[in-house]
Structures are given as C-alpha cells and as structure tokens.
Amino acid sequence: MHPSDPFEILPPHQRWAPTQSQLDAFQNASEKLLPPLVYKIRLAVAKWRDTGYEGASQTSLSLLNFWLNQEHAIGQKTFRFFFSQREAIESIIYLYEVAKAKDKYELMKFDSSGRVSTGTFDENWTRYVIKMATGSGKTKVLGLTLVWAYFHKCYEADSTLSKDFLVIAPNIIVLNRLRKDFDGLKMFFDEPFIPDNGFDDKDWKNDFQLTLHIQDDLKPITESGNIFLTNIHRVFFNEAPEKSPETTLLGPKPKLDAATSKGLDLGKILRSDKIKDLVVLNDEAHHIHDSALAWFKSIQDISNRLKLKTGSSISLQVDYSATPRDNDGKIFVQTICDYPLVEAIRQNVVKSPVLPDEESRQKIKEKDSTDFVERYRDHIHLGYLEWEQQFEELKNHKTPILFIMTMSTKEADQAAAFLEASYPKMKNSVLTIHTNDSGESSAEKKNLSKKDKEELEKLRKAADNIDKDHSPYKAVVSVLMLREGWDVKNVCTIVGLRPYRSESKILPEQAIGRGLRKMYSLGTPEKLVIVGTSKFLQFVEELKEAGVEFQYSPMDKDTRSKSSVMVEVDKENPNKDLEALDIPIPQMNPRIYREFKNLELIELNKFKNQKVLLKKFSSDELSEIVFQNIDGDFSHKTVIY
Question: What is the mean pLDDT of the segment spanning 281-296?
Fold first, then answer.
C-alpha cells in the first residue's frame, strides 16, 4: 500500500511508477510518464540523506538541519515541510554542490532511460526543473531555493551562486499571486525559511538584506542583494530597432509604459554592469519548452551578456511547474524531481477529483442548437446542482466556487447571464473574467482608458478576494482564467464546456488544476466535482494513464444520498486544552448477559405477539456518520434515521 503520510520520507522503491498497461497507452514512451533523470537522482539523494548530507557545505548543512530537523510553530500550529518539498530542495543542493552536476554532461550520468543525448539540452548554463503537482507547495520550494542560494553566496567564500534573483511569472495573474508572498518579504519571515540569529553561530535574519523590485518599479540596486519580481514580458530580448528616416532623426520610439516605469527598464538593468551574477527562478515554467520562444531567448541573452562581462553564465536556473512538458507531451529532460498528481491525491495533499458515473452521464444531453446556453443547459444545470449541495453544506464556513470554462468571451457572458437569471442564489454573484492566451485580462491592453483601468482593478480585486471565507462571488465564468497561476482554494465544482484537443496545448492537469488546492487542513478529505461535455470528461480521464484514480458518483439530485457527517476530535480550537480533557476510559463489565443454552427448547408457535412491521426510510431520511480515531484514521461509520 502506498504510504499516505505526506511528511514521511519515502524510499525510491515506494514511489509511483507506471504499469505496463500505462506504458502501452503511451507506446512505451516512458519519458511522457517519468522524467529520465529522476530515478537515479532519487537513489543518490536518498543515500546522501542517510549519510547526514556528507560533502555539503556548512551553510547547506545548517539550513537543511533547520528546515527539516527542527520543530517549527506558526501561531498555534506546528509546521513541517512536505516530503515532496524536502526532496526537491535536497535534490537541488545535492546536484549543485555535491555531485557538481552543473552541465548537461554531468546530468546525463543520471539518465536511466538510455534516450537522453546532449542535443536534448538547449541551455549552456545550469538548469534544473522541479515537477510538483498543483497545490503541493511549489512556491515554498522556490523560497527555499532562494534562501539557500543567498546564504551560500553570503557565507561560502568560493560560492558560484548569487545574491541577485530574477523571479519570473508568465503573466499578471501569477505575478499577483507571488506578490502576496514576496511583498515585504513576508513569506520568508512569517514562515520557517530563515534561522534565528545565533543558529550555528550565524546572524541569519540580520544578514538577509534583500531589496524587492517589482516589474519596472525599480529601487536602487544594492550590493546586499536584490529580488527582481516580474512577468516575462519585462525581460524579453529587444532586437535592434528598425532604422528609418524618422528614427534616425528622432531616435527610437519611447515605450508606451515609460510614464509608469520611472525612466528605468528592468531588461536593461539585468543586462547592465550592475548585475555580476544571477539566479533565475521561473514559476509556472512549462512555457520554456522551446528554445525558439522569446522566454528562452531572453534568459539566454541575459546569460550571454553575463558571460561577456564576467566570464560566467547564469549561476543557476530553477524552473517550477506541475506540467513541464513540451508540445509532444514529453517531460522536460532537465527535470530532477517529480511529485506527480497521483501521489498528491493519495496523500490527501490536494482534493480528490470526482466524475459523474455512467448513469449520470447518460442523463446529460448536448442539444442540437446554435444557442450556447441551450446547447449546454444540462451540463450547466448539473454543475449548479452539485455546487448547490456544496454551498448548503459549507455556507456557514466557506463560500464554494463554481467555475465554468467556455470557448469564447461571448459564451462566457452568455453563461454568466444564464446563471444569474436562472438561479436565485447566483443573483449578483457571478464573476466574469475575459483573458487572452497569455493570461492577461482583456482590459489589460496598451493605452487603457480610465474606465478600462477601473474595470481592470475591480476584476483584480475580485479575483484576489474570491478565496475569502465569505466571498461575494459564488461562480466564475471565463475562457482561460484558471488555466494556471490563480491559486483559488474554494473552487469545488468545475464545468468544462471546451472541446479540449491535443492541438489546444492544454493538458488535463491544467484544465482541473485550479480546483485542486485544498480549503482545509490535511486531515479533512475534500472533493473536486468535475462535470462537462463528454469530450471534456474524456480529456480529463486521460490522467488515468498517469496513475490518477477518479471517484465516480451519481450526480442527480433525486438519487444522490446526503453527505456524511464527520465526527472527529476538534484540534483547531486554541482555547481547548486537550491534555486537560484527556481522561482514562474506565473498564466496565456488562450488566446484561445473554445465555444461549437450550435454545432448541423454545417453541416459537406458542408466542402470541403480533409481528412488528419495520418502517422503511427513503434515502433522504438517512444520514451517514463517519467516525475517526484521535489520530485521524477511519474508525467506523453508522447509518441513522
């Protein structure tokens, strides 16, 4: 049985591996299921861990010991990093510092597929890819990487790392999410990233002196360290401007956003003499799948200019993604660590996906109509019914969110209008967000009018606040808003009305990814209900080939049983002293005994009483109570009337 504790150190042989039938589904192209370097790296890191991190620098030893072997408290709760997070940062440190696998030739030594060649690596600098399921804590691993690189540069005399960091987001949505952690360096000081002063004789917190620069809002570049947090568009490589009589006389045209950039250009700063070395950290980095893309070319250009100035390329690039795959579905060859969705679901780190059973699917009919709402009315209605059940169960604690994916902004508007007009609970509670392929809002264009800017700000605030316990919104309708980067925990129902195809370049995990994040703690099982067109459900079920197991449930209001009532120990109440309430359970003897001797002497025909008719109860009158032990394990369940 696969271990279910997400904190437990798992040996490599206990990790998920595809069956032969799953490999057959991919025509034995194992690189579509398993990264070719990961298995041997897991073996090496596990052995290194067992030696107490032999060969690591004192800085790395101190940080690993602090992060992974010390007790941490955040408020009233104890904090621990998941094993998946632990393995990721261990793998980065091991490869860079101990194995010194800083180029493709050294990385290729860990290949277990026999299919990796030098031609599969596009970059000529050190690049690692961390593959972790959506909702499993990639941002924390990004933070651990940054802290390790920073202090390594501070405290190790021969360090080739950097105190300057380029943290890249693919779009404004992801950037805004990262800002919540990075503003005021909040994440690093509020969570156990930095040891206290005096730990192993270092003044860690005093020495963590980084200046945060966001987009083109640049502060003075400091020698103590800088974080440049930006979306990729700010660092694109700019080709030389095309010459014309106009540009010859007047110079190149000014940037349209020059008025807001305070005369500074992040792209130029990163390529200037002020930056001597650099660590690049890419969030949602599945976009860097082709060396011909502007994203890759921009990082390559920065690295080449560093090499011209200092003789050294980018110190380290680490990419983080749940789906680091190229257009052919192959996992990036640079992937050094893998925590797949199948393991995250089994360990209750994310919600468990639930699909309609076959009987429920047969009831959903796609109408032959050119009217979008009429065509998909059954799908939208079923999604609403599932959401309504969740709403009634959670409304005193959370506002669950219904998310509907459409093909176009016109369809999104039609679906939103239908929800508000048809269901009283949805009145004035539907958020419609129009986005383009880059994740930018349709209002987010150049030369914004005042009205557009106000609308954009309104949408951003609504998107940021939708995860509050009592959000004013109950549904989101959009085209690509939840494709990536929007970390919404309260999405509990997804309705897919997009005919996903391979040419769409969207993966099944991306389609459901924004609904996988949990609302509650690890001990509380949560479900993500997924409905939609038959093609959409077939598309999602492709995840079976990667080991994901789906629950199938009847999704008709008349046949669906009531949800279980959970009986468990209340560990969240800060005013409850569990030790004071811990009383010994007395051992008691039964007062009534049953004697089964001489049963054959009983003559049933001499009993004069009438038979009692048993009352029959409908499914709506039944309630299921699930009992858990104090350690959170299942005890038993009882059905009552």
Answer: 81
